[in-house]
Amino acid sequence: MAVSCSHSSILLPPTTSSVGFNRFPCLQTLRFKSRNVYQKARISTVSASSSRSLEALIFDCDGVILESENLHRQAYNDAFAHFDVRCPPSSSESLNWSLEFYDKFQNLVGGGKPKMRWYFRENGWPTSTLFDSPPESDDGRAKLIDTLQDWKTERYKEIIKSGSVEARPGVIRLMDEARAAGKKLAVCSAATKSSVILCLENLIQIERFQGLDCFLAGDDVKEKKPDPSIYITAAEKLGVSVNDCLVIEDSVIGLQAATKAGMSCVITYTSSTSDQDFKEAIAVYPDLTNVSLKDLETLLQTIVTAA
Predict the structure, then answer these.
(1) Does pLDDT of 6 surpass 90?
(2) For the segment 272-305, what is each residue's pLDDT rounded down to a tens digit?
(3) Which domain holds residue 82?
(4) Active-site residue numbers?
(5) In its keyword annotation, does this UniProt entry include Metal-binding (predicted)?
(6) The whole model's pTM is what?
(7) Could you give the CA distance from residue 36 to residue 19 in angstroms, rounded to a whole number?
(8) What torsion do the CA atoms of 56, 59, 65, 70 make, to the nearest 10 degrees?
């Protein structure tokens, strides 16, 4: 996550069942951009000389098609409850990561196992139904982390398959508009292929997934975002110039990958990315509810300035 030192600090208060950031000196100095939540899109100026024709629409998955982070948080908390993880061991109830905490935490420590290992190092290794006392050996701690992560992963899959999760507002409609207009459609995600397939088959349905002109996951390229490889590869597979591709992302990391590839990018942010710096995006939206294909075509073809 991009961090600017000129911005105001966000300090979260500690809670009993979750943890606030001000308990950790290494997180206490993290600074986020302070700004009002967008109610309308923020549109940047597109010069006439660089106008482009929209030939391909490329979606990120996590955060764009699916607001997945809260689902991951739910799966972690279910795992903690299932194994009665008490952290610190003196806690009167199982560990529960709050939404406020996780929104920031997931942008600071990548990967499920590193997240838990970091948290337990900072707060003390927990008691659980897996061990009579907090594990002290490296092997015991690795077993705890591996078991929790495996259970969490299966729980996450159950949540996705439950039918209770829907695509973010406007996504499916926009995909259908693009398909009806003869535009090429792609999904490019940094997540593992199996994870993305699971999400797409359940959220946009198998027919739309199979109808994509290009689908790339983190497994398909050597470098992850913000490296532009995944978007450059997508343009090649689509047979479309990067100038005529429009990317929809939710984070500054994805935005950087798109712009480095030479593509225009619009942002549809989430609660965990809303404070990031999206100045390189041609538009920023809270979601795609009121965004049409025509709106996106206009962004690429004409000069549009914000009121």
Answers:
(1) no
(2) 899 999 999 999 999 999 999 999 999 988 633 3
(3) 70-161
(4) 60, 62
(5) yes
(6) 0.76
(7) 25
(8) -170
